[in-house]
Amino acid sequence: MTLATDTPRIALIHATPAAIAPAVAGMNTVFPGAEVWNILDDKLLPDADAQGGVTPHLAERMTRLIDLALAEGAAGVLLTCSMYGSVALATQADVPILAPDEAAFETALAGDYGTVLLVASFESALNDCVARFAEFLQANGSATKVVGETVPAAFVATKAGDVSALTEALIEAAKPFVGSVDAVLLGQYSLAPAAAAMEEALGLPVISGPQAAALKLKSAVTAQIQ
Fold first, then answer.
1. Residue 63: pLDDT above 90?
2. What would the 3-class secondary structure string for 125-181 be?
3. Which partner for 187 in 129, 170, 172, 207 could form a disulfide, CB atoms 3.0-4.6 Å apart?
């Protein structure tokens, strides 16, 4: 299936409804000329959490969603759940397929920070993101250290759609680290709405995935269709 290149269709594949709004906002801000297509399997994240991570079966389930996006003419695909980033990286296609935090990792690397606090709303997501970020830093010869913190109250807030409670939970969790870390990395798209308020409250750079990913995707898609 072929779509008009002046309005490229970008498929955002979500494993939780909480990631939709931040991902769409990032696309609308950075890549307003794109047609955003949201694909949601709202059990992908709970199933991965219940099973302690992404199993081969769950990876295959995500792959089928990517295949759907490609079959329907997507000019680019962005996975918005960090736990499924490895599926994006393993997918070969003629269009860009991005893991959710590739661009955020690159931003953190470019900052050359001494220590980065990485926060997530539940333990398996944190463990996955910390491991992948540390591996990314090592592969790029960075001496940046990573400290992880789980914020359960953030999970409750995102499920309720309460941005105020989300922001408060993340700020309170990060406050004890002020003075010992140089930046904060939000490990999930669902945490992104709190980024600006966290920066102001903590006085630290706060890196979140949606806009960074949208910018990277825009560059890749534009280069492909020109």
1. yes
2. HHHHHHHHHHHHHHHCCCCCEEEEEECHHHHHHHHHCCHHHHHHHHHHHHHHHECCE
3. 129
- CB 208, CB 186: distance < 8 Å: yes
Check the CA dihedral 188-88-22-181 and report its sign.
Answer: positive
Q: Are 78 and 13 in contact (CB under 8 A)?
A: yes
Average the pLDDT over 112-119 and give the result: 98
pLDDT of the residue at 223: 86
pLDDT above 60: residue 3 = no
Q: Exposure of 188 by Cβ count < 10 A (0-12 exposed, 13-18 middle, 19+ buried)?
A: buried
Residue 53 — pLDDT band, cuts 50, 70, 90?
Answer: confident
* Rg (alpha carbons) of the chain, rounded to whole number: 17
What are the phi and psi torsion angles at 10 (to 5°)?
A: -110, 120
Q: How far apart are the first and last CA of the chain?
A: 19
- Cβ atoms of 84 and 77 within 8 Å: the answer is no
Tokens of 46: 């709970």
Higher pLDDT pick, 175 / 7? 175
Residue 4 has a pLDDT of 46
Q: How far is CA 62 from the centre of its chain?
A: 15
Q: How many CA atoms lie within 13 A of 186 on its CB side?
A: 33
Residue 18 has pLDDT above 90, yes or no: no
